[in-house]
Amino acid sequence: MAFDAKSFLASLTELPGVYRMLGADGAVLYVGKAKNLKKRVASYFRENLSSPRIAHMVSQIAAIETTATRTEAEALLLENNLIKSLAPRYNILFRDDKSYPYIVLTRGNYPRLGFFRGNPDRKADYYGPYPSSWAVRDSIHLLQKMFRLRTCEDSVFANRSRPCLLYQIKRCSGPCVDRITPADYAADVQLAAMFLLGKQQEVTKRLTRSMEEASAQLAFEQAAIYRDQIHSLHQVQEKQFVSSNKGEDVDIVVALKQDGQLCVNLAMVRGGRHLGDRPFFPSNAGDSSAADAVAAFLRQHYAAHPAPARLLVSPLPNEEEEGGSAAVLGELAGRPVPVQEARSLSQKAWIEMALQNARLAILARNQATAQQEQRLAALQEALQLAEPVARIECFDISHTMGEKAVASCVVYDGNKMKKSDYRRFNIRDITPGDDYAAMRQAVTRRYDGIANGEGTAPDLILIDGGKGQVASAWAALADLGLTHLNMIGVAKGEERKPGLESLIFPEADGRPPLNLPSDHPALHLIQEVRDEAHRFAITGHRAQRGKARKTSTLESLPGVGPARRKALVARFGGIAGVLAASPEQLAEVPGISREMAEKIHSALH
Q: pLDDT (tens digit, 9 = 90+) per residue, 211-256?
């Protein structure tokens, strides 16, 4: 039965809220938010719709569900959560699950300057967010050079007896060994905070005044330090070819549709400094316009991340249909958040640079896609496969003399590594060091569900190893009835040099090992996937081994429970620090008596 829009709209509320459009099979077609549910939903059932894509969606509606909220900001948050969890086919979807990095300045006598990713709290001061970890680390490097703040963890700071290398190369003032007074260090922290807030001119004035006072008092070494700081600050300002002297926080959001791609590029300006940008390629974009993409990005991104003082966008979203972006973002932030087009020359320069980076991102994405498709075609030809290869899964085993063996399975799909499908298997119940048994167990556990009709089967299985590993993996597939799946082993060549690998076929295949030229695109793809499997396996193994050794060593200490173990690790920075500590140092830990310290030291040595 056709959806009766007239009857549905007659009973619909005019409160703000979220609407979900459902198809005949119950699947969610589209999720949207509205300041006025009745007016917004009614706009879909008028004669002239904004695009053929929307008209096609409306023709499939079998039901509409709504959820009223108290405010439009609440509706925006709910809409964002539903889009991320349901992934409706007609919503433009931006996948940005990573939290943005910040610079953190801790509190206390000697605050630490550091990298932070997560949800900021009130226990420290946070500056950002930054578009990438590179931008944070570059800024930290600049701050170290200018203000010489410590970056070491508290556990290391508390146990230094002499300055570290950073002090020697003039990247730290040595507060750990009292090479600077708390008052002078606090002054440097204040200058660093002012710099991060965009008050570079004020920082320069203070440093200049301090340099002149030091010179007047004949403290020429101190005056030279101030001079170097001023010089570094001027160098930083010269590097910022697109900057603002207002010390403002601005996000620049542009969308560009070109060469079959729709890209939204986000550039960040913090404290007047342009920190870089990040391109996004949404899913389900279809024939959506650049303005549609900007509107979707603003709703999804700023429902999850804090909005800056203002936003420059190009093109402006259709406010009549989508609701006022500035109003709803202002409600979320608790302050006005202007959303506007570029007006001044500097703003237009920011927009043009963001658009240029979007063009470059589209070009790079299309070139990468073409290269990957070329490599997959070369792989199909080299291995003489009947069907094209789209999904590759690769296995590797990592252990240390049989201890804590871990198998990895990494996935290449959609012309890239698909990390959401990666799996690790902790190998159990085998003879330690038996790589063949470990490989057989990993393959069995991975494809047991495939044999039962669950999950996605690969087009090609790679085994990091030679004939023995391939035979074990093939035996596992035979037990599961999956010998129709394509499989090869990747055996390291002479002296384990890259480019000399041999491709090993299962014995049932009958083909001899295949050696591809070192510049063959298929070999490059195989090496990339194999190396990723090795990395994923070894990081998992190291984590398991480290956890086992740390836990077994500390838990075996006589009379040391969870609270004392935690205190020891906090005091000495880990098991290595506990092992290096003397009985006298152990006795300084709260809850550890002299007698207990002697027992712990004896047990560890």
A: 888 788 887 877 887 787 777 666 555 444 444 556 678 999 999 9
- CB-based burial of residue 248 (10 Å sphere; 0-12 exposed, 13-18 middle, 19+ buried)? middle
Mean pLDDT of 567-585: 79
Look at strands 487-491 and 460-464 and give their pairing.
Answer: parallel
Task: For 374-396, give the secondary structure using H, E and C.
Answer: HHHHHHHHHHCCCCCCCCEEEEE
Query: What mean pLDDT comes out for the span 502-517?
Result: 93
Cα torsion angle, 590, 596, 598, 603, sign = negative
Q: How many CA atoms lie within 13 A of 575 on its CB side?
A: 14
Q: DSSP label at 99? A: P
Peptide bond between residue 129 and the one before it cis (omega within 30 degrees of 0)? yes
Angle at 93 between CA 368 and CA 275, to 5 degrees: 65
Helix (H, G, I), strand (E, B) or coil at 541: helix
My answer on whether omega of the bond before 388 falls inside 30° of 0, hence cis, is no
Cα 45 from Cα 9, distance rounded (Å): 10
**CA-closest candidate to residue 295, choices 334, 339, 330:** 339
Q: Which residues are registered as beta bridge partners of 425?
A: 407
- The β-bridge relationship of strands 113-117 and 101-105 is antiparallel
Q: Give the pLDDT of residue 341.
A: 92
* pLDDT for res 344: 85
Band the pLDDT of 359: cuts 50, 70, 90. Answer: very high
- Tell me the DSSP string of 281-344: --BS-TT--HHHHHHHHHHHHHHHS---SEEEEESPP-HHHH--HHHHHHHHHTS---EE---S
pLDDT, tens digit, 9 for 90 and up, residues 150-207: 999 888 898 888 889 999 998 899 999 999 999 999 999 998 888 888 777 788 788 7
Q: Are the C-beta atoms of residues 38 and 13 closer than 8 Å to each other?
A: yes
Least confident interval from 7-16, 49-58, 147-156: 49-58
The residue with tokens 């081994």 is 545
Name which of 281, 493, 207, 256 is nearest 359 in CA terms: 256
**Cβ-based neighbours of 421, under 8 Å, separated by 6 or more:** 411, 413
For strands 310-314 and 339-340, give the pairing: parallel
Q: Distance between CA atoms of 94 and 80, rounded to whole angstroms? A: 10
Contacts of 27 (CB under 8 A, 6+ apart): 89
Residue type for position 590: P
User: What is the Cα–Cα distance from 519 to 499, expressed in whole angstroms?
Assistant: 8
Contact criterion met (CB below 8 Å) for 587 and 567: no
Q: What's the whole-number mean pLDDT along residues 51-77?
A: 89
For residue 232, what pLDDT is reported? 66
47 within 8 A of 88, measured Cβ to Cβ:
no
Instruction: Give the 3-state secondary structure of residue 482.
Output: coil
Looking at the DSSP assignment, which residues form a beta bridge with residue 393?
411, 461
**What would the two tokens of residue 298 be?**
């603003």
